[in-house]
Design a protein that fits this description.
This is DUF111 family protein. It comes from Niallia circulans. Pfam families: Ni_insertion. Helix 1 runs parallel beside helix 7 and helix 4 packs antiparallel against helix 5. Strands 10-5-1-12-11 form a 5-stranded mixed beta sheet. The protein has a 3-stranded antiparallel beta sheet with strand order 3-2-4. It has a two-stranded parallel sheet with strand order 6-9. The protein contains 9 helices and 12 strands. The chain has one domain.
Amino acid sequence: MKTLYFDCFSGISGDMVIGALIDAGADPEFLVQELKKLQIDDEYELVWKKVVKNGITSTKFDVMLLDSIRMNNAVDHSHEHGHNHSHDHNHDHSHEHGHSHSHSHSHSHSHDHNQDHSHEHSHEHSHNHSHSHSHHHRSYKDIVKLIIEADLSDDVKNTALHIFEKIGRAEGHIHGMPLEQVHFHEVGAVDSIIDIVGAAILIHHLEVTVIKASAIPVGTGRIKIDHGIYPVPAPATLEILKGIPLEHTTIHGELTTPTGAAIVVALAADFCAFPSLKVQSIGYGAGTKTFAEHPNVLRVIIGEQSQPL
């Protein structure tokens, strides 16, 4: 049976999942076309390219928010000196939290992200709409409606809804409210919607039978989110990962984000050591941050696993 294994030795985030699946052979152009069925493609632009992370060639996937691009361009044009809005982008690949929002700082379109040699294999899909809808604070109910009404397959819809429910229930538990009343920036961000629905699209596109994953390293230290300075893992991430084996690490930073946690928890049938596989394809999805000691990538292995007798 066709098995996909998430080797999360450097954690997992939504953009790393998409990058790894593309790197393993999923068709990014198919992803672009399917995501248009959400009818929010006037809000974002997709970019993917090859980068090298500590010696490993991998695919970096980004969702560029068009509102932010327009706003930043307006700021650039109104300031004679330009101020060089590079901001380093060293954000622990964390889409979900308001403390960083790695895709909103698209001042130069170079997307360097401290990624060593980018190889310039960049694919941009600009939709050139003159208007934009600033819906970055969609509620859980808004997102469910968006997915249900999209012309996606039932399998993709169900997978995406299952992932979003993981995040919604975690946030609802933390904030003390029922799922239906959850309304928060983290899940409503366009990049999180794209990462989650995109992961569902590509997983089914690859026709995988079984999904397994390693233990999940979450990182150490502190991060700043909308509600203040919190320990790593963030409350939502830890809530989502209840019952899942976590791996100790001394690396400072947020290795696993709420979106990454929700994707792997919703998809993986088992969390285990590397399974017995006849490997067919391997993909590496790059995170944003660069570490001194190891490549900040998610590894995906796809292969045939013998049916148990």
